[in-house]
Structure formats: C-alpha cells, structure tokens
Amino acid sequence: FVCFCAWVGMLLYGGHSDEGSQKLPNFGETAWQLTILLTTCNFPDVMMPAYTSSRSAILFFGAFLLIGTLFLLNLILAVVVNAHKEQVEAVQQSTTAFRERSLRQAYLILQAGGARGGEAPMAELQAFTLLDVFLELNHYKEIAHIDSEQARLAFAALDRSGEGSISLDEFLHLAQVLELRFERANRSTWIGSRLSRLLARGITLRLAEVVRSAAFENAIDLALIANGGVLLMEQWDLLSGSEHAPAAEIFSGRIDSWWNVAEVFFTSLFVA
Fold this sequence. Notes:
The protein is mainly alpha-helical and 272 residues long.
C-alpha cells in the first residue's frame, strides 16, 4: 500500500513541483515520508508545498491517511494481537500439560513411596504423605511458607470427596490449592464486638473459663437429672394410676410447698 501510494505521489509531484523538490524528490524518500505520515508525525508539513500550490492535494494525502490509519494500521494491530493471543494460549497449554505430567509422575512416586513397613503401594495418598509434601515445599523460596494449620486446610481443600485420602484427579489440583491463601474468620459475636472491653476483664474471662469447663457441663447434667427426678416424684400418683389425688398445694400457683420451691429453682436455673 505504501509503495503504491509512493508511486502515485511520484507521478503527481515528482521532480516538477515544489512538493517534489522539497518533500518527495525520489521514490525512496517518498515511501519513507508516507510511512512516517501513517503515524501523523510529519502531518501536515509533508503536504504543505503541494497544498499551497493547489488545495486539491488534500485528496491524495487525505485518502492516504484515511485508508492507512483507519484500515491498514488496525489490520496490522489485529494481526499482531491475534498472534500474541495464540502465543499466550500455546504457552499456557504447554505449561498446563507440563504441570499435569509432573503432578502425575509425583503422584506415582508418592504412591509407591508412601507405603510404610514394606506394604503394597497405596491406592490413594493418605494425609501423612501430603503433610510431608507440604513440609518439604517449605524449602523452596518460590512457594509461600506452609505451616501445619495451612497444610491441614490445603489437604481438606484437595480432599473433595471427604474420604480422608487424595486420588489422582484431586492431586492434579495441587497447584491451584497452593495458590490459595487461608485467613482466619472473625468469629466474634454482635455482643462481643460491642462489649469487647467488658469481656476483656479478668472476672469475665474467669467466668468464660468456668462455662467452658467440664465441671460446668457435669453440673448442668446433674441439674437436668435432678429436675427429671423432681418431676417424676411430683407426677408419680398420676403416672402410677393411684386413686389419691395430688396434693392441692402442688397446683395452687403459690410457693407454699417444697414442690413449688423446687419448680421455681429449676425454672430460674434454666432461664438463667
């Protein structure tokens, strides 16, 4: 396209005009000036001698700019972008294929070497084998450090079946799992986030320790058993089919018997 337009330019302005003597003296210089014109770096200087002589010069230079910048450069850009895209896809496919081959070989090696005490090769990789792999990866600077907790989380992410072992298909996702970053979730409650100062006091912390202790759980279990015993004793006459009616003070609604005292005590305990 540039060469054709340079030939047309030589026919129009070559040697016998101010444009030809100043800007387009020969074919090589004309092709070079038109190539620069595609970038608009020498516009409108390159056409000023011809435009001064005749306003019709804009037809040649304007057509060249329109076709060159709107179509030719876009076509070249599209070809370059497509070539780059194809190259990137080819590199990605090659990398993916290489990664899959490497992971398959590593799985077979771990499968054969993970058996303990002369046992037959494992059908699937167990947790202890993967945890050893994660610890070994900590010797490589290219991979972020993996502590024991992150190793367990990574194993859980790989173990999609939840069987406690890693199959070959699951192991092929190792690279994606290593790119994950696990963060501890904030488990603070609505009250805890707004009463953090109160909850940070010593008496509150000791109370929390008491509530979480096994002795507190045992005390709750004993209270439930005692409550069941009191209810059984209170309703024994009805459950046993006795003809004696229960004492009237039990259902009087007032705290005037030890049955009512026990009922109020256990109700207050469970509500608290």
